[in-house]
Amino acid sequence: MNRNTIWISGANGKIGKILQRYLDPLEDEVLATDKDIVDIVNSDETSIFARRNRPNIIINCSALTDPVVCQEHPDEAFRVNALGARNMAVAANTVDAKLIHMSTDDVFSGQSRSAYREYDAPHPTTMYGKSKLMGESFVREFSVKHFILRTSWLFSPVNHRVEDIIKEARENGKVVVPRAQFSSPTSAYQLAEFIVTLMNTYEYGIYHASCQGVASRKEFAEEILRIKGIDAEIIEDENLRIAGHRPDFTALENFLLNTSKIYEFPDWKSSLKAYIEKNNL
Ligand SMILES: NC(=O)c1ccc[n+]([C@@H]2O[C@H](COP(=O)([O-])OP(=O)(O)OC[C@H]3O[C@@H](n4cnc5c(N)ncnc54)[C@H](OP(=O)(O)O)[C@@H]3O)[C@@H](O)[C@H]2O)c1
After folding, report:
1. Which residue from 68, 114, 236, 278 could staple onto 179, CB 3.0 to 4.6 Å apart?
2. Which domains does the chain have, with CATH numbers?
3. What residue ranges line ligand 1, CB within 6 angstroms?
4. By the 8 A CB rule, do 178 and 244 touch?
């Protein structure tokens, strides 16, 4: 296989960091940038970087991801998540690169009670979700060789989602989580493995890319404590749910991946167990 030149934009973010750890520099050349090097909102900067370095694969992990910040600053959310995505798509097309664009379960309204498939109509209710959906449309419109990956509730050593629950339980004897929020918890390692598999294919399109199954925040915390054998109370807080600006139910079903058999994500419980063991938590 030829050596890839891979440009990761948003390389200092949570997925960007895991991807950098995952990619083998002996196999692929990795160009890692964040907004201090290439601000994707700036179309000239973005295109010039692509034309100078001629990556054959671009992974766009750049985004404004804090739903509260997006809600309070919609202009900034749309600049980065929509126009920035457009600029990356134009740049990818200019150099004929494959574009892997990260998106989110928050493009769905959260009104469903069964996992969303790729053909379900998105209907975002938050500024984060709306700006990300517009980014997806731009990627479709302006780049030919694209993969749009919607994922959900990532846990990794970078965001400490699992580690924080264990710490809170040990220190306080209780864990407080948002009430009645459901999605598909996903290991960032698993996602990185999938991205590396997919980027060497020509299976373009949109994919739901999460570990299989559905959990509430409470069930996720319960499973962590069960695996660790920690006895602590889990309290669901309605205020955390409202303040977080997240839709209530955004579980994803990897319908197209399961149909095409390109890659099979494990269920979230076994992935979580493997994560806890691998990291000696
Ligand atoms: N983590 C999850 O659970 C999750 C779930 C579903 C989908 N996703 C999607 O996955 C992608 C990456 O998520 P993440 O969790 O890695 O996000 P993240 O940790 O917030 O990282 C995003 C990165 O993009 C950078 N960035 C912001 N504005 C930029 C700009 N104008 N130009 C270049 N870079 C810019 C950020 O820099 P600053 O921090 O300096 O602003 C940050 O380093 C996003 O598209 C997100 O929607 C993530």
Report:
1. 236
2. 5-159+184-214+249-269 (3.40.50.720)
3. 9-10, 12-16, 34-35, 39-41, 61-65, 80, 84, 102, 104, 132, 151-154
4. yes
Q: Which of 80, 75, 117, 121 is nearest to 102 (CA)?
A: 80
- Half-sphere exposure in the Cβ direction for 51 (13 Å, CA): 9
Q: Which amino acid is at 88?
A: M
Task: Kindly state the tokens that stand for 67.
Answer: 């739903």
Say if CB 104 and CB 131 are below 8 A apart. Answer: no
| 116 in Cβ contact with 109 (< 8 Å) | no
Kind of pairing between the strands at 154-155 and 215-216 = unpaired
C-alpha to C-alpha distance for 259 and 262, rounded to whole angstroms: 8
Q: Each residue of 181-207: pLDDT tens digit? A: 999 999 999 999 999 999 999 999 999
pLDDT given at position 243: 82
